[in-house]
Amino acid sequence: MVEISKTGITLRQLQILREVVRSGSERAAAKALEITQPAVSQQIRILEGLLGVQLFVRDKGRLLPTTQTMMLFRDTDATFVQMERIAKTVASLKGVDSDTISIAAPYVFSLRLLPEAFHKLRSRQQVAAIVLKSGTYPEVADHVLEGRADIGIARLPLDGNVFDWCPATTATNVYIFPRGHRFAQKDIIRPEDLVGEPLADVEPQMQSHLMNENALRYMGAEPHLAIQVDVIGQEVSFVAAGLGISSSNTFAARQYASFPVEVRPFEPSALYHYVVFWQKGRRLGTLLQEAVDVLVECAQDGPERPDL
User: Fold this and answer.
1) How far is it, in rounded angstroms, from Cα 138 to Cα 158?
2) Any idea what DSSP says for residue 10?
């Protein structure tokens, strides 16, 4: 057991604490660590004795961490994330490929791109498990940078000092609207067409949405943000329900093929560059390289919808 700076506390005890916090129960932690539940309980009691604080409060069968526990958990979790990252780097340097991969991507790509890519990947390679981490584009970058994901899907700009990437596809702005909407009669949507339309959109901080809202304000019209979501991809359900229209881009809009919505180009448009990326200098093993190739293939597949 590795003791930490003569405190009497071992890395194993902190690993057990971490799993109990993450799972909410000693039983689940024991299963994750492949040890017995009594062993988990014993190590938690020893750790409480060494620290002189209560680490958990029981509530309806769950273990709720105390404030002191969460302070320790944050540092402990960061430490083990770094250790896992080091383990992956060592394995990469030794040429040892894992049969489990983790991919970070915004939620919207779980609607179509990722299921198609995973299906194609499994047909080509033996994959034990695939772990998906979602989030905003900055959060996706953090997942990869901090080692929680092997590769990620995002759009440029990314920091070339810490990431390598492979181009996946480009995209331009579009608007999504429910079937039967007046926009169906138009070939191109322009800012003046948006006046008076309720918007179902991602929070306004997103660059593409700011651009469109600024275009409305330039014409003296205030945007009507009727539905606001914080995850890219959630807005399409509200559009399909007839509660508003939404700005997007051609790549993201391709993920909505199963929804009863239509899409039209929006002008003026920006150009977005999507990439599959990983930590700079990391050697991609056979499975990861195949995963990158498959993601790029699926990203570049042409749209099946006539309105795209």
Assistant:
1) 9
2) B
Phi, psi of 280 (to 5 degrees): -60, 135
CA separation for the pair 194, 263 (Å, rounded) = 14
Whole-prediction pTM value?
A: 0.71
Inside any domain, residue 305: no
Does 307 fall in a domain? no
Average pLDDT estimate for 275-285: 91
Burial class for 45, CB neighbours closer than 10 Å (0-12, 13-18, 19+): exposed
101 shares its domain with 244: no
Alpha helices in 63-176 (DSSP H): 67-93, 113-124, 137-145
Query: 178 with 190, same domain?
Result: yes
> Sign of the CA dihedral 191, 157, 74, 81?
positive
> Which segment of 35-49, 70-84, 86-100, 218-232 scores lowest on mean pLDDT?
86-100
129 domain residue, yes or no: yes
pLDDT tens-digit series, residues 200-240: 887 655 665 666 677 667 666 777 788 888 888 999 999 99
The total number of structural domains in the chain stands at 3
Q: Are residues 176 and 240 in the same domain?
A: yes
The domain containing residue 210 runs over which residues?
170-271
Whichever domain contains 256, its CATH number is 3.40.190.10
Residue 136 neighbours by CB under 8 Å, 6+ apart:
106, 232
